[in-house]
Amino acid sequence: MPEPISVQGERMLKLWQGSWIAAFAVGAVVWGLIIWAVLFHRKRSNDLPPQVRYNMPIEILYTAVPFVIIAVLFYFTARDENFVEKTTKNPAVVVDVIGFQWSWQFDYKEKDAAGKERTVASVVGQPVAPNGPAAAKPVMTIPSGKTVRVRLHANDVIHSFWVPALIYKKDVMPGYTNEFEFTANKLGTYEGRCAELCGVDHSRMLFQLKVVTPDQYQKFIADSKQALAAGGAK
Q1: What is the pLDDT along the chain (234 residues), one digit of tens a residue?
Q2: Domain span at residue 75?
Q3: Same domain assignment for residues 204 and 97
Q4: Disulfide: which of 68, 69, 107, 205 matches 96 by Cβ 3.0-4.6 Å?
Q5: Model-level pTM?
Q6: 2 is a domain residue
Q7: Read out DSSP for the chain?
Q8: Any idea what the CATH number is for the domain that residue 114 is in?
Q9: Cis peptide bond upstream of 102, omega within 30
């Protein structure tokens, strides 16, 4: 798994690691019992060995242990899913992400004094040329340490918003708005892509997630507001 760059990603990584530890523990017990039976309970005569099919305590144990394992895994899965999918009332940053054949558009939203939402910055991508430079990818810029809400839209077919470093992806569907929130805690630039086969140029739907300091983010928004005021989209 990639090193997570968000609080939510760290929680998912721990769940994944815990599930593997539980799986290895169960596997070790099962294989241990199999090897023990093979080595010490091989057939030595034609006598029928002691039977345990009517041993009530053992049969209760056979039934109870799997239920306990499933219940524990279910609890931690439900707990972490609720944490990862939780949305807040007033996120610091709201970005409308529009997936289209074959690139991405990032619209940054703010509310004015009247509470009406407006776009204050916009990044419109172009399909990345085969073997093209990294600079050709559209960049989604977000601040570290702040709650970011991503709202996903599509106008043509189903896409999927995926940043491996977030250890998370979500479908981008026409006619339905999916959304999620995350809080990045590591600065840097991370690769993103569409994870849903959406057509012939699906592989060209590449983008980057850039995590900057809050001050750098404010400068990005201020510069973008100037560009929009001048009548252009970056």
Answers
A1: 889 999 999 999 999 999 999 999 999 999 999 999 888 887 777 887 777 777 788 888 888 999 999 999 999 999 999 999 999 999 999 999 999 999 999 999 998 877 788 989 999 998 888 776 655 899 999 999 999 999 999 999 999 999 999 999 999 999 999 999 999 999 999 999 999 999 999 999 999 999 999 999 999 999 888 877 776 544
A2: 7-85
A3: yes
A4: 107
A5: 0.82
A6: no
A7: -PPP-BHHHHHHHHHHHHHHHHHHHHHHHHHHHHHHHHHHS---SSSPPPP-TT-HHHHHHHHHHHHHHHHHHHHHHHHHHHHHH---SS-SEEEEEEEETTEEEEEEEEE-TTS-EEEEEEEE--PPPTT--GGGS-EEEEETTSEEEEEEEESSS-EEEEEGGGTEEEEEBBTB-EEEEEEB-S-EEEEEEE-S--STTGGG-EEEEEEE-HHHHHHHHHHHHHHHHTT---
A8: 2.60.40.420
A9: yes
40 and 145 co-located in one domain:
no
Q: Token pair 């708005």 is at which residue? A: 177
Is the domain of 79 the same as that of 97? no
